[in-house]
Amino acid sequence: MDQYILGLSCYYHDSAAALLKNGEIVAAAQEERFSRKKHDSRFPKNAVSYCLKSQGINLADVKEVVYYEKPLLTFERLLETYLGAAPRGGRSFVAAMQVWLKEKLFLKTELKKNLKEVQESFGTDSTYIPNLLFSEHHLSHAAAAFYPSPFEESVILCMDGVGEWATTSAWVGKGKDIKPLWEISFPHSLGLLYSAFTYYCGFKVNSGEYKLMGLAPYGEPRYVDQIKENLIDIKDDGTFRLDISYFKYHRGFRMTGRRFHKLFGRPPRKVETELTQFHMDLAASIQVVTEEIVLKLAKSLREETGIKNLCLAGGVALNCVANGKILQEKIFDDIWIQPASGDAGSALGAALVGWHQHQEEERVVNTNDAMKGTYLGPDFSNDEITKYLRQINAPFHTHSDPELFERLAEELEKGHVIGWFNGPMEFGPRALGGRSIIGDPRNQKMQSVMNLKIKYRESFRPFAPSVLEEDVSNQFEMNAKSPYMLLVAPVKKELCRKMTEEEDKLFGIDKLNIPRSSLPAITHVDYSARVQTVSNNTNPRYYNLINAFKQKAGCPTIVNTSFNVRGEPIVCTPQDAYRCFMRTEMDILVLQNQILYKSEQPKVEKDETWMQEFELD
Question: CA–CA separation, 45 vs 119, rounded Å?
């Protein structure tokens, strides 16, 4: 009889559910994709329903439900922290306690109530609720990093804002066992330090950190010494302590305090106001400090354990620039990063803790990895898609794969922007060829067109390349696989162009419109790119599309960005995709084997209220 384990992450940010069948990862999704509320923190009822329906089961068939952390330990941290800061932080303490006393302190009851509602929605008479277990936050991260990895043995490094107490932790994984080495505890947190600068530069905490990373190459790291002399004490082994007097995240609604603002000579930037060279320099500085810590931790772990492989998870593991530095330094023989490194991925980690540690089931190592390319979300057949398109009277053309890919290669070469909806939806924050917007990376106008006319987002935001796995070393200075777009590498020197003296003098955003390589749409101002390697094994249709473009244009790389607009979660259904297509300036929409041209679609009145549906991130 099949054994199912369901993992849950919710009530903080990025709620998600993940399902194992006899230890195999069979389904996983974030709640935001169904609710259309970005970073939705509510109980993931839609994600749970999807996971169960994908296997044709209901909760009565599930052996265990595992929650990703232990809420009482988190409550203990909150109480100790607020008591230590008293009488300061009184207002935020009252606000936090209202939430905790209402739902989080009695989480087991709350989870059971919501699971019962999910079971009732299946129309079954069963009132059975599976056994409910609780993992620990960083153990869930470690499990999500190690168990799906292709390694029999590995060091595991988890770095985020904070779990119950841990903010940075190191583990050793071997077989089905994960054993802790050490941890750094709250309030000393690399994730919260980075988030403090995210907040100070006017971006949203827990969602804008990748913007800060994208802004960094436009600046100079002028404030590194200031940060290291005042905010953080970094030891030779990478461990660290913050001077907490500069921050307010431990006792208030804000991330930074007056001492922080005085140190840098101005108050935090207001949201949506001008980004200056000062903010770019700050972004560059905190990025350098983050990379220094991550590299020192990696080196000391290699020396301490002698283990040749490294697994990464936690929100800081989404800092693909730092990840790329670990790869370039060749500290470990191999690195594997959990594609859903944040709290959403902890739902998967929690389920894996249930299987390997509570059920004590042995681990079968997959030499590619066990994430299935992270294509673990809803899938839609051609029949479902054509039925929907006929219902809304949307003109479309159906083509076989070879004919479709040949046509799309032609359209890409013409400079057209294509919405690409293909197979199961990705789990995690990156679009990887399941729900992507694609274009020609050789087109100098592609970055600005995509940012301003399609994504409706800041002009400085870089785009990523998807490259055929076997061609990665011809396009970029790397030989490693990067299937989850979590490694940054320099563009191949032969493809880069030297800047003129005049161009070299430019600062900040003025650098943006200067082409730096023969792939200008994906080459960042520091000549780097966030690389996704595409394999025929994990996503054959996306691979064949890029290969068709290579045959047509001689280029094995395309631009890949997520299929959404700013503030909107990545599209999940054909309905989401068509709606986004019609309300942006995309030229073409592909829904599996159906191709839709914007010029043939019924006219839609421009609706300015649409952008207001999504809260800007």
Answer: 10
Distance of CA 464 to the CA centre of its chain: 13
Give residue 314's identity as a one-letter amino acid code: G
Beta pairing partners, 106: none
Residue with tokens 């799906």: 148
The class that CATH gives domain 382-613 is alpha beta
First to last CA, the chain: 45
Pairwise CA distance, residues 343 & 15, whole Å: 7
Note the pLDDT of residue 606: 67
Contact at 8 Å (CB) between 561 and 573? no
Query: Which superfamily does CATH assign the domain made up of 4-145+343-370 to?
Result: ATPase, nucleotide binding domain (3.30.420.40)
Dihedral sign of CA atoms 347, 349, 353, 356 in order: positive
Confidence at residue 249, expressed as pLDDT on a 0 to 100 scale: 82
pLDDT of residue 103: 61
Per CATH, the homologous superfamily of domain 183-337 is ATPase, nucleotide binding domain (3.30.420.40)
| CA pair distance 348, 66, nearest whole angstrom | 9
Structure tokens of 381?
């057949």
pLDDT in tens, 527-577: 999 999 999 999 999 999 999 999 999 999 999 999 999 889 999 999 999
Look at residue 21 and give its three-state secondary structure: strand
- Count of CB atoms situated within 10 Å of the CB of 150: 17
Predicted confidence at residue 603, as pLDDT, reads 86
Q: Which stretches within 306-414 are classed as H helix?
A: 320-329, 343-353, 382-391, 401-413
Q: Which two tokens stand for residue 448?
A: 């600005």
Contact 209, 198 (CB under 8 A): yes
Q: Which residue, 160, 147, 144, is CA-closest to 194?
A: 160
Rounded to whole angstroms, the Cα distance separating 279 from 201 reads 6
Distance CA 112, CA 232 (A): 42
Residue-level pLDDT at 514: 80
Contact 409, 551 (CB under 8 A): yes
Domains 183-337 and 382-613 share a fold: no
The token duo for 406 is 């040949």
| Sequence ranges of the domains in the chain | 4-145+343-370, 183-337, 382-613
* pLDDT for the residue numbered 140: 97
Which residue numbers in the chain have pLDDT < 70?
Answer: 72-105, 250-253, 458-459, 507-509, 512, 606-613, 615-617
